Amino acid sequence: MKHPHSTTALALIFGLVASASAAQEVSVVTWGGAIEVSQIEAYNKPFTEATGIKVTTISADDPSVLLRAQVGAGNVTADVFDVAMADAVRLCDDGAVIAIDPADLPPGADGTPAAEDFIDGALSDCGIATIFAGTVISYDTSKFPDKAPSTVADFFDTQAFPGKRGLAKDVKRTLHFALMADGVPASEVYDVLATPEGVDRAFAKLDTIKKDVVWWEAGAQPPQLLADGEVTMTTAYNGRIFDAAINEGKPFEVIWDGQYLELNAFVIPVGAPHPKEALEYVKFATGSEPLAGQARYISYGPARKSSAPLLGLYKDDKTEMAPNLPTAPENMANAVLEDPGFWADHSAELAERFNNWLAAK
Fold first, then answer.
1. Do 73 and 96 meet the contact criterion of CB atoms below 8 Å apart?
2. SS3 string of 2-25?
């Protein structure tokens, strides 16, 4: 004979189990494409295996925009967002994301404390960096059979290297290219850009190719523009070009000269549904081994120094990843490293100038 309360008791037990199970999850908003795949393989699957916590990914063209919208509406539905470090700094200043103490992060694989193990600039009050990504120039080799472009100046030379150009409709990933093509050394780009004369100089250089530009906004667009023949050269995220060249056999080459090197970072929004699990995920994913493991799936550089000795082959088991990373010493010879502080101070005014310039005939 059944106990009179057995059904109720079982329902209560299963309800509690379901509730506990529901808490054992974390949702991560990321950029889609190859970067999402790399995070699933290097972070999410090992994290779930180690902790039992399920990870769901959501792709967005710019996760910081979605984060601001959710926090602003008071309806936060995701736990971790992968954003540019400059956005992490602004979100932190605005009180939209929680502070993360570096002392809570695991030491490097070699025992180095996290605060010393992360590359300079890779830790902010609320953001923990994962990768260095490069916005680089890429071209279709079949379009230049006799002489190949090799510098940022060549990108602006449509006579020697004919064809349309793809550029990011994004002021911070575009203005530095113009200045460097006009002769400004990488080390002086921010100093020049901080002056009205420098800004004028950048836009004057952009004027020289404005009629030849196809503007892109999402990371998947540049390789597609090249593949479709809409442009012969374009700026692009280096990981997207690597993916197209290695996995799809596209005849695309990277020009590292003038690359814009920026950090992506994980942040946890105020009001995250599962803040405890979110922090555990961030701590795990930003460890030495997961960061090095991500480079097996995408050509972005790990944010920890201790990850470098752990780098190996791409998932094809034949391509060495170290030379294909934006952080390889030879690839950084003339790179501009993003300055989140500069963009926190100047992004609004420069974006307004950029948008007005775009709208002008």
1. no
2. CCCCHHHHHHHHHHHHHHHHHHCE
* Percentage, residues of the chain above pLDDT 70: 94
**Identity of the residue numbered 78:** A
Q: Which residue intervals of the chain are DSSP H helices?
A: 6-23, 33-39, 45-51, 63-73, 85-93, 114-117, 152-155, 175-181, 189-193, 196-207, 221-227, 238-248, 275-285, 288-294, 340-359
Q: Are strands 233-237 and 336-337 parallel, antiparallel or unpaired?
A: unpaired
The amino acid that residue 124 corresponds to is S
Q: What stretches of 102-239 adopt beta strand conformation (E)?
A: 128-140, 165-168, 213-216, 233-237
**What pLDDT, on the 0 to 100 scale, is given for residue 23?**
54
Residue 6's pLDDT is 37
Tokens 């060495």 belong to 320
Task: Indicate whether 234 pLDDT > 70.
Answer: yes
Residue 256 backbone dihedrals phi, psi, to 5 degrees:
-80, -20
pLDDT of residue 361: 76
Residues 293, 313: Cα–Cα separation, whole Å = 10
CB 137 within 8 A of CB 186: no
